[in-house]
Amino acid sequence: MTLVQMQPCSANANPVHRTVDDAMEAAGPQVCDDMTVEVALAVMASARTGHLLVCDEDGLCTGLVTQARLATVRDSAAYTDQVRLRDLLGDRGPVTSRLTTMAEAEHAMRYRRLDALPVVDEQGSALGVLALAR
Where are the beta strands (DSSP E) in 1-134? Predict the structure, then answer.
């Protein structure tokens, strides 16, 4: 499993001590957790992205949804057009700090089988996304 490096690492940086801040992508589209699955899929299509950061009414990141996960939910027998993103994420999805080491983040992503992980600041606002290489 290889993580994407979106920002160049300085020549003096020790690869063992690299943090998520060294490799995260820009935050990209952020949507409110009261959005329906259908609208979220439409936003993804128009933004040409495979994921959306989901925020609560206070603007704090509650997680990330992918196009694949939303398509699976939409295609399930239990789906209705009233399903909201907050129904999929529960209380709070997995997130990480920009100060987390790359080794710790990679381990967490492997353990949880995640392709992308939101990066948040100390207050919980989205800073970016750590994504696997394609």
Answer: 25-26, 30-32, 51-55, 61-66, 96-97, 116-120, 126-131
Q: Which residue matches tokens 């300085």?
A: 10
Q: Give the DSSP letter string of 20-53.
A: GGGTPEE---EEETT-BHHHHHHHHHHHT-SEEE
Per-residue pLDDT of the chain (134 residues; tens, 9 = 90+): 334 434 444 444 555 678 888 888 888 899 999 999 999 999 999 999 989 999 999 989 999 999 999 999 999 998 999 999 999 887 677 889 999 999 999 998 889 888 889 999 999 999 999 987 65
Contacts of residue 134, defined as CB under 8 A and 6 or more positions apart, other chains included, come to: 4
Bridge-based pairing of strands 96-97 and 116-120 is parallel
d(Cα 48, Cα 75) in Å, to the nearest integer? 21
